[in-house]
Amino acid sequence: MNEAELANRFRLGEEAAIREVYRRYSGPVFTVARSLLNDRDQAADAVQQTFLQAWRAAGSFDPARPLAPWLYAIARRVAIDMYRKNRRTVPATSNEEVHDIPVTQLSFERSWEAWEIRQAVDQLPDEEKQVVRLQHFEGLTHTQIADRLGIALGTVKSRSHRAHQRLARDLIHLVEVTS
Amino acid sequence: MTPEERLARFLEAGDGEVGADFLTEALAAESTWENPSPDIEDEVVRAIAGEAQTEGRLAVVEPLRSRSRSRLRGWFIGVAGVAAGALLLAVIQVGMRDRGIRVVMAATDLAPAASAVAEIIETRNGVLIRVELSGLQSAPDGFFYQGWVRNGAGEQVSIGTFHMRGGGGRVGLWSGVSLDEYDTISITLQEERAGPASSGQVVLRGSLDT
Lengths: 179, 210
Hints:
Number of helices of chain B: 4
CATH topology of the largest domain in chain B: Immunoglobulin-like
Largest sheet of chain B: 9 strands, antiparallel
Oligomer: heterodimer
Low-confidence stretches of chain A: 92-101
Order of helices and strands of chain B: HHHHEEEEEEEEE
Helix content of chain A: over 70%
Low-confidence stretches of chain B: 56-99
Distance between the termini of chain B: 50 Å
Number of domains of chain B: 2
Mean pLDDT of chain B: 75
């Protein structure tokens, strides 16, 4: 199903389309919310609110336009509104320790970059995504990754090479790299 | 080496100065790899379905005509008692099938247990609207059901009548007008000898908007 068809069916409230939109974009939505709200539970609430608000606003959405920037704008607004609401509900005088949820000062551009990076990662084949995760998030070397996964070092290297080529292709527009 | 190749080498091995430290920082961030719990997807679907029903109720309820209201009230109360508070219109266009457009029709609070799917089929001699009904009680003596299509200006065209006394199932309705200019399909409960106009007692409704 292409994006325009998916957007149209989402707008009409088809369950299959709602699930497909969720599966394509819940990762980036969560990344943006998690980046803005340093709280996993709040970020999960923001994910739910984002898709509900998107559906409410879908009547005015032009299916010919891409879904991602539209959902991103909703996700960012939801996260910021949630942060502000939480701040307002913190009691002025309380003897209990209050754990306020700090919102990070990510600019619109930076949080959009976070969205795009997440999208690029989510589009990697699973075996390549696994290697990239172990390398960047867990900080493992190729040799350690091979040991962890029980596969040949050469396989790790080839997966890593392909994965980073895909990431570079999908994210090159975010950086200014000269030949 | 192309810019993409330079960026790929930087991302993979940290080679070169390409001003993309923010990319490697993002790849090392927990937020890039975390996912919401799997049950959130079902919660989203449930929330949207619930809201669709609520919105439908607000959009669909039509004023009852005072002439027949009291006579019908007892019958409606019996039907509506099962679902107090009302399950109402969720107008969901479910898309094209190979034989025609299918439209989910949702119940109003006058017949909350009812549901229907209308399949609209263009034929050489008119538009056949094949309605698969369930949960709609047979019309009481002296009453019948009538199908309508309606446009944004409130103009309605009858597409046929039926009574459901045979136990329910499928009914075939016909429209002699193109449905392109009409945005709603509805079924009303009509009283015999009350004239040709719609009673306004809508029991099912769906959207023809595509």
